[in-house]
Amino acid sequence: MKEYDYLIVGAGLWGAVFAHEMTKAGKKCLVIDKRSHAGGNTYCEFTEGIHVHSYGPHIFHTNDQGIWDYVRLFVEFNNYVHTPLANANGKFFNLPFNMNTFYQLWGTSTPEQARKKIADQTADFISRKITNLEDQALCLVGKDIYETLIRDYTRKQWGRHPKHLPASIIKRIPLRFTFNNNYFQDKYQGIPIGGYNRLTNGLLAKTPVRLNTDYFKDRSYWDSLASKIVFTGQIDAFFEFHFGNLEYRSLKFVSKLIDTPNYQGVSIINYTDPVSEYTRIVEHKHFEFGNQKQTIITYEYPIEWTAGKEPYYPINDHKNTTRFKAYRKLAENTPNVIFGGRLAEYQYYDMHQVIASALKRSKCELP
Ligand SMILES: Cc1cc2nc3c(=O)[nH]c(=O)nc-3n(C[C@H](O)[C@H](O)[C@H](O)COP(=O)(O)OP(=O)(O)OC[C@H]3O[C@@H](n4cnc5c(N)ncnc54)[C@H](O)[C@@H]3O)c2cc1C
Question: Which domains does the chain have, with CATH numbers?
Answer without folding.
Answer: 4-80+187-247+315-365 (3.40.50.720), 99-170 (1.10.3110)
